[in-house]
Amino acid sequence: MVEKMGKLRRTHMCGELRSSNIGEEVVLMGWVQKKRNLGSLIFADLRDTMGIAQIVFDDTISEDLFKKAEKVKGEYVIAIKGKVRERESINPSIPTGEIEIIADELKILNESETPPIYIKDNDDVADNMRLKYRYLDLRKPSIQNNLKVRHRTSKIIREFLDENNFVEIETPMLTKPTPEGARDYLVPSRINAGKFYALPQSPQLMKQLLMVAGMDRYYQIVKCFRDEDLRANRQPEFTQVDIEMSFVDIEDIIEINEKLLYKIFKEIKGVEIELPIKRMTYNEAMERFGSDKPDLRFGFELKDITDIVANSDFKVFSGTIKNNGEVRGINIKGHESNFSRKDISKLESYIKDFGAKGLAWIKITEEGISSPIAKFLKEEELEKIIERMDGNKGDLLLFVADKSKVVFDSLGNLRVEVARRLDIIEKDDLKLVWITEFPLFEYDEEKERYVAKHHPFTHPMEEDIHLLETRPQDVRAKAYDIVINGDEMGGGSIRISDSKLQERMFKALGLQEEEVKDKFGFLLEAFKYGTPPHGGIAYGFDRLVMLLTDTNNIRDVIAFPKTQSATCLLTGAPTYIDSEQLKEVHMKLDLEK
Amino acid sequence: MVEKMGKLRRTHMCGELRSSNIGEEVVLMGWVQKKRNLGSLIFADLRDTMGIAQIVFDDTISEDLFKKAEKVKGEYVIAIKGKVRERESINPSIPTGEIEIIADELKILNESETPPIYIKDNDDVADNMRLKYRYLDLRKPSIQNNLKVRHRTSKIIREFLDENNFVEIETPMLTKPTPEGARDYLVPSRINAGKFYALPQSPQLMKQLLMVAGMDRYYQIVKCFRDEDLRANRQPEFTQVDIEMSFVDIEDIIEINEKLLYKIFKEIKGVEIELPIKRMTYNEAMERFGSDKPDLRFGFELKDITDIVANSDFKVFSGTIKNNGEVRGINIKGHESNFSRKDISKLESYIKDFGAKGLAWIKITEEGISSPIAKFLKEEELEKIIERMDGNKGDLLLFVADKSKVVFDSLGNLRVEVARRLDIIEKDDLKLVWITEFPLFEYDEEKERYVAKHHPFTHPMEEDIHLLETRPQDVRAKAYDIVINGDEMGGGSIRISDSKLQERMFKALGLQEEEVKDKFGFLLEAFKYGTPPHGGIAYGFDRLVMLLTDTNNIRDVIAFPKTQSATCLLTGAPTYIDSEQLKEVHMKLDLEK
User: Fold this and answer.
1) Which of B155, B216, B490, B574 could cross-link B539 (Cys pair, CB 3.0–4.6 Å)?
2) Contact B245, B253 (CB under 8 A)
3) Where does ATP bind (chains A, B) (predicted)?
4) B77-97 core/surface letters (b: 16 or more CB in 10 A; e: else)
């Protein structure tokens, strides 16, 4: 039997009562976390979004009321009125542990069947159950806390940007399909038969147009979409903090974003990050860490030994080098004894995912060198290698010989994997770094031409512009990423505002005039009418919140996430639809048999 | 020739300089609004998003610099350095009118072709030009101001809700298609062949699930989508301020929303609205104003004369009444002389859009009654009508005889149209009203059954629940709309939280069990596990901003709006796509020949 609240109104939240409330009459409403029936006494833990309070029913209330209290079960929704009093046995593990409420009124506002998952943190129920019963999973304090941190973070970001004269402007969700870049989510148009909108992968062009429009400083916290095969921690829709400014160069953008990051970490984590944030060029990051998202919380830096082994009798090394490859290594300092041959062969199979054919290793043990490759190396070579690698007793040296890309990918990931296995990363350590001077282009093997590493509107570094036509691979971009603990949290660039330079850029990309006009014509047209110098940045908001909540799973910071096959286990989306509905948008299915 | 900013950095915005800045050296950047060349003197108005400043170039600068200044044209982007000085001839019409800047440095940051539209407010260029060159249209101070008011309004809303313990939570954009309600925008799934997502028409079900999840107080400023044929002031995507609360009844929701509205009007318009806001039942609104969105800024209220003319010899009236119709009128008080016969026949053709067959009228002139219908009415009938209508010399009485719906629609719209033609509405008048006690159901002629007037989760009024099965047409809902100056700004309801009541509701709607399960199964499942009493409201944010900026055109409060055929004249969206792209999402075109 479900009752109405009637005139009863909540006076406090369960979680906010303290001993200073003792003696007050309060009305609480929430969910029954658990109930203990001791015969003449009933204890119930009542839970709301702020915490838990202990409710006591005793024989001072009517028999009817007591019987009603007996009926209450876990996850029932109840309202109680009563007086706050000191608890006999204080529970120091919860904030309300010094008090309890002796009830003199009870209403059962709703009943509950036995929930299919427990409402408690770290319940190790299967992921698909958590997603199917998301409304129960969301009752867990840890997940609710994540969503609250998410909210507070967006609030802090907005406050900061508001104070700095940024205007939040909404850009369209139904936009023009972008033939370059990731795959679009498409939306067929009913009114314009045969035509399609795309959901935005980012508001990039729109925010540049806002700069052309003289809006000066724009931001938006906005949903973006990419129809990619989902890896872990990817969602088909994700949230971006999107920022653009006029009349700025790199330093201006970095400066204001450092202040923003400082404020976020200060207010959410209570940590004052050191300003200015460290900077590292793309080349340095690759050379030292094998990655443009280096995790600086530990060492194991890459060293190049190509010159030492170029003419070695060890053909795995020298042969690779002759074939335009290189050999680099990392030193797992002081940890040789943590890795058995079996462990090392596990590391070897780990890096095969990144294209490496094998992992060479040298252990410097108490008893001397232990290595399957040592016998192929000349004494002098071995000495030079150990010197270059700063090898000492207790060290494990790991080497990969391959094309540059494979070497960097393998060792860059391997150093992170090793640190993870050794569990040497301090939980509260926080290492921020700006990666700068990215290459403007990268070579696309499939398309057999250069493509823009960021996007085709990225401004080249002034001193490299003259190389656009002759040595495009050497042109660096006015681009920057902010990397925190090895994750790319955001990135941006100064955009090209000079249409002549933009034309040279398109040519360097091998785009035909017709193609350029079709894809970006409206932007180039806009650029004719007085475009200010401008640039910006975009943060991955989901990732940022993961970092701020110490969460490894992106689904723990999103209220209603999707699975890796892009389905919602709660609602069943996506679903089949009537052929009538499909006909209205001028489409039919084209399913393979 | 385009120059770089180099080390030059903006010190001030053009629009913020005042006489207190006289003597300061400043750097300004912006667009040239206009330039006057007086031979040895050049004046340029420099514009940025904060306003305009006058720049002077004279013979104290080098010849080269002066020549460069001569080259500058309208909408060129320039940077200048110079000293603020008192202006010789003060311009009181702009805030910076007391000062000018005598330039000693000039950089041309970008050139501009002659723009196809003027950058000035109230330029009466064609709408399609404004939309095609939106980035130029957005340079107009009035449109920039609208976007800034929009931003400030969302900021105020967020601040208020944050202070009141609401948490902003993002709900999915890729959701389950909703077979009831308006038409969905569909998104084909690539990974799940043959299945579709829909873009949300509102986060209604998701926010209710957040209440089941115990999030207590939710809000979101969020894009919603409806694929409807677009009328004026409708856009395919629109923004909603979406709010939901637990453990509340109507009064709690109205109370907090009145505080929110008070704050918005206070901070944006400087107007203190009177609290509590007036309330009116749906029935009263219909009887007096012929509309559930009554504009209370003027009278012309409806009066029912059905009883007086039920047996009249004037068959247009009595015949209609015998056919279950009715006759109502409005009194255009004191304005008979403003309406010629020709004017009245224009009004008649206006109401034909609402299904009316004709407009009967009586003028009470200095010379007596003038009316084409008077001759059909008995003296006594005429007297009673005039008495009922409160008719006096100078009044124009207008009548419609038809089915109830047509009468209300015609007269409800007619009174607004007449007020508009008479131009009697004070620009700054602000009349807010809550419309309450809506009918829970309305009869759908096409479906031949009752449908939910709001949505099927709306809670019936307690005292009407017993009528659900027997007299559904008489059941009123715990629903409320906030109407401002005749526009519905928002609406909401208390939701059903009792699954037994929800079942009765579905039955009353004639929905089969299978259908209910398919459409709302996941919600009903959720309701089994402890659902709190809850309710909420949603505001049409675009409309609210229109009201706050005194704008009649929804496109003036949206950065990149679409046309009535849902196209973007700027980017060309929607567009044709490759059949390859279509094939990837398992679709092909189904175009009629």
Assistant:
1) B490
2) yes
3) 226-228, 235, 488, 540-543
4) bbbbbbebbebeeeeeeebbb
Q: Is A418 helix (H, G, I), strand (E, B) or coil?
A: helix
Task: Establish whether A98 is an annotated binding residue.
Answer: no
The pair phi, psi for residue A319, each rounded to 5°, is -65, -45
Given B75, B236, B571, which is nearest A522 (Cβ)?
B571
pLDDT in tens, B408-436: 999 999 999 999 999 999 989 999 999 99
Closest residue on chain B to A591 (Cα): B586
What is the token pair recorded at B51?
Answer: 């306003």
Residue of chain A whose alpha carbon sits nearest to that of B7: A249
In DSSP terms, which residues pair with B361 in a beta bridge? B398
Distances (CA, A) of B357 to B325, B360, B362, B409: 13, 10, 17, 12
Residue B414 amino acid letter: L
- Annotated ligand binding at B158? The verdict is no
Q: Is B387 annotated as a binding residue?
A: no
Dist. CA B505–CA B452, nearest whole Å: 9
Residues 6+ apart with CB under 8 A from A181: A201, A455
CB contact under 8 A, A213 and B136: yes
Return d(Cα A540, Cα A554) in angstroms, integer: 11
Q: Maximum Cα–Cα distance for chain A, whole Å?
A: 95
- What token pair was written down for A198? 């795309």
| pLDDT at A592 exceeding the cut of 80 | no
Q: Is A220 annotated as a binding residue?
A: no
Residue A463, exposed/middle/buried by CB under 10 A (0-12, 13-18, 19+)? exposed
pLDDT, position A511: 86
Alpha-carbon distance values, B326 to B400, B405, B407 (Å): 8, 10, 8
Average pLDDT of the residues in A245-271: 98
Residue B1 has pLDDT above 90, yes or no: no
Share of chain A above pLDDT 90, in %: 89
Q: Using the predicted structure, report yes or no on whether residue B180 has a pLDDT greater than 70.
A: no
Asked if A587 lies within 8 A of B583 by C-beta distance, the reply is no
d(CA B287, CA B303): 8
Q: CA-to-CA distance for B19 and B189, rounded, in angstroms?
A: 61
d(CA B553, CA B142): 13
Pairing of strands A487-494, A479-484: antiparallel
- The per-residue pLDDT for A152 is 98
Residue B315 CB partners (closer than 8 Å, separation 6+): none
Question: Is B47 flagged in the annotation as binding?
Answer: no
CA distance B55 to A53: 67
User: B231 contacts in A (CB within 8 Å)?
Assistant: none
| Residue from B590, B591, B592, B593 to probe the interface with A (highest A Cβ count within 10 Å) | B590
User: Which residue in A197, A216, A567 is closest to B574 by CB distance?
Assistant: A197
CA distance B76 to chain A (A): 5
Give the residue on B whose Cα is nearest the Cα of A213.
B135
Chain B residues with beta carbon closer than 8 angstroms to that of A183: 190, 581, 584
Ligand-binding annotation for A227, yes or no, is yes
Coil, strand, or helix at residue B360? strand
User: Contacts of residue B212 in chain A, CB cutoff 8 Å?
Assistant: 135
d(CA A491, CA A540): 9
Cα(A57)–Cα(A40) distance, rounded to whole angstroms?
Answer: 8
Q: What is the DSSP string of A337-377?
A: GG--HHHHHHHHHHHHTTT----EEEEEETTEEE-SSGGGS
Residue type, A198: A
Mutate to test the interface with B, among A590, A591, A592 (most CBs of B within 10 A): A590
What pLDDT does residue A571 have? 95
Domains of chain B as residue ranges with CATH: 14-110 (2.40.50.140), 143-281+433-579 (3.30.930.10), 298-425 (3.30.1360.30)
Question: Measured between beta carbons, which residues in chain B are less than 8 angstroms from residue A188?
Answer: 186, 188, 587
